[in-house]
Amino acid sequence: MDAVLLERERVLFRLNEEINAKSRGLFELNENATWMTTKRRMKNNIRKLANPQQQVDDSGSNSGDSSNNKENDCDQLTTATAASDTETEFNELSQCTTNEDTKSLLESEKETSISTVDTKVDLQLVKPGGEKKINNKAVAKQAGGNNPGAKNVNKNMADVVPKVLEKKNISSEGLIKCSKVAIIQTELETVQKQNEANVKDLNLALDRLKQLESFKEQLLTKNAALERTVKKFEERNLELDKMVKEREVQITNGAKELSAARTEIRCVTQNNQNLEKRLFKLQEDVDGLKVKLTIANDAEKETRDAARQERLTYEKQIKQLRKQRGEVLADYKKLLLVVDQMKKQNIHADQTRLISDFERDYFKHLDDASTSSLSQ
């Protein structure tokens, strides 16, 4: 029983170790999925930009030419449409995804889109009559620091500006705004490409998450089956414990019955010893009577007849006692054989009853023999 229980416990420990190993693998796969997105960002040099909000005077914002306002409105419309397109794409993706990794990716993409919109708003310029002014160096740093394409566009625009001035009578501020619009468009293209790559990564991560969820469900079903088997084994162990306790109770009862039988056997042996002592005493008495009979035969014939009769009676009693002694010894040997057999067979309840019945018959036989000897 102990060996079987130990084997079952070992099997259960192995199954628990397998479940722990698989859960660790799932955790590592989730970490790898999150690391893929971060690695993609590191390759594309995407960083989380803070929302630069510069204070603008109310008087300068109200004044300005109609042409500059129209150009600014066009720039804002283009940036707003691009941002709205990106936001709608990411909203559709957010409805499909339910995991924490996808949420983090969406938040990062929204931050990038918001940062581009903020940079575009900061790039608005107005005429110098009490209006907002921005350092061209800071704008060039913000535009050229994020992507190398902006630097190339600045160089190209620097080459194109004098030619345009020759053909059209356009102010330098308008040309600067056009160049900034081109830079913003290139930035939008790079951001869109990065967003597409991030969407691909998201789809791959979602597929991987689906696979992991299916694998997790399989592991959960296996774990439930293992728990059921464990419960079955525990119930079986409880039943076996009950059986063992019942057997122990039976063994204790058998041991008590054995001790009682041994005490009875000791009593029987003591009775036999007492009977043997009596027999020896009777033999001594017979010898004394024989001597007396020889003396009486020499003395008187009448006493001889009486002595002969007494002698005959005593001899009969001796024969009966010897027969009883032989029977007692035979019964005692039978009892010893029965007790040995019962010890070998672990003494069942039915056999103990047979032994008690046999002992009763044996005592009845002894009582009958003793009564018959006394009556004679």
From TrEMBL:
Gene3D superfamilies cross-referenced by the UniProt entry: 1.10.287.1490
Gene from which this protein is expressed: 6036426
Entry superkingdom: Eukaryota
Coiled coil: 192-324
UniProt name for this protein: Polypeptide of 976 aa
Keywords from the UniProt entry: Coiled coil
Keyword Secreted: no
Entry keyword annotation includes Coiled coil: yes
Compositional bias annotation for Low complexity: 57-67
Region Disordered, annotated ranges: 49-74
